[in-house]
C-alpha cells in the first residue's frame, strides 16, 4: 500500500517537473527567438533592395542580393581597411583593460593601503558621469597631445575601465583565498609573481567575460570615434558605415549589408570564448 502511494507521489512530482520544464523551455525559446529576430531581419534586409525596407507587410524571407549589396559597400567605403582599424583598436583596448583592471582589482581585493575605500568609491562614481559631459575636455586634451585623427587618440580614452576594475575586484576577492596569498608570501613570492602565477590562472573566466564586454562596447562605440577621426584611412567600421548615410537617398540594402558583415566578427569572437564566458557566469551563480 505504501509503495503504491510512493509511486503515485513520484509520478505526480514527475508530471509537475515536466510541466514546469516545458514552460521554462518554451519561455526560453520564445525569448531567444525574439532576441535573434533583429539579427535575422538585418540579414534579410541585407539581401533585399532598398525598397524592401519600407514594404508593407514587412518582408521576412531572404532575397538574393547579399553579394551585390556588399559590392556596393566596397565601392563606397574602404570596408576592410576600416574593419582592420576597428579590430586593432578593440584588441589593444581589451588587452590593456584586462591588464589594468586585473592588477587594480587584485590590489583592491587583497591589499590594505591608506585611502583604499575612498579611491575605490571614486572610481565607481566615474561610472555615473555621462560620457557626453567629458567630450569637450577630452577632445582638448587629445588635441594638445597631438593625437587627433590617430588610432591612439581613439584608444587611450578607454584604457581605464571602472566597470572592469569593479568586476575584477569582486571576482578576485571571492575566487582567490587569502590563505593562498599568505602562503605564497611566506614562500618568498613577490606581489607580481603572486599575480602572474596564482591569481591570473584563477581569474581566466572573468577575463573572458570582461574581454567580451569591453571588445563589444568599443566595437559599437561611435561618438568618440566620429569626433576624433577625420581621415578616411583611419576610419573605424562604425564611422565608415555612418558615411554611407550622407546622401539624400539612402540605399538601405547596401547599408544593412555593411552592418551585417560588420557584425560577423563579434559573433565569431563570442563563439570562440563563450565557454569561458558561461563558466564565469555559472561560477558566480554557484557562489
UniProtKB/TrEMBL annotation:
Coiled coil spans: none
Subcellular localization(s) per the UniProt record: Cell membrane
Domain ABC transmembrane type-1: 83-273
GO BP of this protein: transmembrane transport
GO cellular component: plasma membrane
Membrane topology field: Multi-pass membrane protein
Record's keyword annotation contains Kinase: no
Membrane-spanning residues: 21-43, 82-106, 118-135, 141-160, 198-219, 252-273
Annotated keywords: Cell membrane, Membrane, Transmembrane, Transmembrane helix, Transport
Entry annotated with the keyword Cytoplasm: no
Annotated family: Belongs to the binding-protein-dependent transport system permease family.
Name under which the protein is recorded: Cellobiose transport system permease protein
Naturally occurring in which organism (per UniProt): Gracilibacillus halotolerans
Organism placement in taxonomy: Bacteria, Bacillati, Bacillota, Bacilli, Bacillales
